[in-house]
Design a protein that fits this description.
The structure is a single chain. By secondary structure, the chain is of the alpha/beta class. Helix content is 33%, strand content 26%. It contains 8 helices and 10 strands. It has a 6-stranded mixed β-sheet, sandwiched between helices. The protein has a 4-stranded antiparallel β-sheet with strand order 2-1-4-5, with helices on one face. Strand 4 (60-65) and strand 5 form a beta hairpin. Helix 3 packs across helix 4. The chain is globular. The mean pLDDT is 91. The structure holds adenosine-5'-triphosphate and magnesium ion. Residues 45-46, 87, 162 line the site of magnesium ion. Residues 16, 19, 21, 39, 41-47, 87 line the site of adenosine-5'-triphosphate (ATP).
């Protein structure tokens, strides 16, 4: 299948036992650029990213990739082209180099190609000096850089990032944003964030989720003069930020 250019969700609902995590979501995005998902904690951002990354199946509704309804076969073949970076990434109990190279090795790439790509991401993410360090010896910011480097090294067709810069200092944050922007010049990035300033810096479009529903979607201008009370409070960082009672 050609590179991913378009994903559509049609009436997607996701239920977990007694929780309605996503409620009839309709969403379209295509091409390159940074598409951000924001909303209060528990709104359904991670669930939506996992559905888009084909890691979770909707309870109801359909997903189309390049206008083709995703079935099990297609899900399987697309999984290698879709890469998601999780909010709380898990690593092997080994060093930085091994953690970054693992995904390439299981793809059976030639070893010189593997090393070339690893050298490149180590440099871009400022990890050269940490290459032989054990993951357990790294700071949170360093681990987050490894987590992103490990995704970028796979050169996926689309990247899904779940709050990739949460808890980062400005320097690490700017390394990440630069790389996200650079990737997004040719391929799509879909990411959740709680950082409004980050949206202004790097997002092309933004979707606001609350309590499993898509409240608004559009250019980042929707955050400038929000009509919706929930978005207004979120942007202002008021009390509604930490719950779903918008
Ligand atoms: N595996 C699961 N089993 C049961 N409930 C779940 C599961 N995953 C998510 N949920 C519920 O679905 C809702 C949405 O969760 P989700 O993790 O998508 O929110 P979020 O917007 O990513 O929140 P945060 O900003 O805190 O990361 C929550 O009520 C959560 O408790
Ligand atoms: Mg989440």
């Amino acid at each position: 299948m050609a590179a991913i250019i378009m994903i559509d969700l049609k009436n997607v609902t996701k239920e977990f036992s007694d929780t309605l995590a996503l409620n009839h979501i309709n969403l379209h995005f295509d091409n390159k650029g940074v598409f951000t998902i924001i909303g209060p904690s528990g709104a359904g951002k991670t669930t939506l990213l996992k559905i888009l990354a084909l890691l979770l199946k909707p309870t109801k509704g359909k997903i189309f990739v390049n206008n083709v309804n995703v079935d099990n076969n297609m899900r399987h073949s697309l999984r290698r082209k879709f890469t998601m970076v999780f909010q709380n990434a898990l690593f092997f109990n080994s060093n930085v180099h091994d953690n970054i190279s693992y995904g390439l090795k299981i793809r059976n790439l030639p070893s010189d190609e593997v090393e070339k790509r690893i050298r490149d991401v180590l440099k871009r993410f400022g990890l050269i000096e940490l290459e032989k360090k054990l993951m357990s010896e790294l700071s949170v910011g360093q681990m987050q850089r490894v987590s992103l480097a490990r995704a970028f090294v796979l050169e996926p067709d689309i990247l899904f990032l779940d709050e990739p810069t949460a808890n980062l200092d400005p320097e690490n944050n700017s390394i990440m944003e630069k790389e996200i922007l650079s990737f997004s010049k040719t391929k799509p990035v879909v990411m959740s964030t709680h950082n409004i300033m980050q949206i202004y810096r790097i997002a092309d479009r933004v979707a606001f989720l609350s309590d499993g529903s898509l409240i608004d979607i559009g250019e980042k201008g929707i955050l400038e003069d929000p009509q919706d009370e929930c978005i207004k409070r979120f942007v202002a960082g008021e009390t509604g930020y930490l719950n779903n009672n918008c």
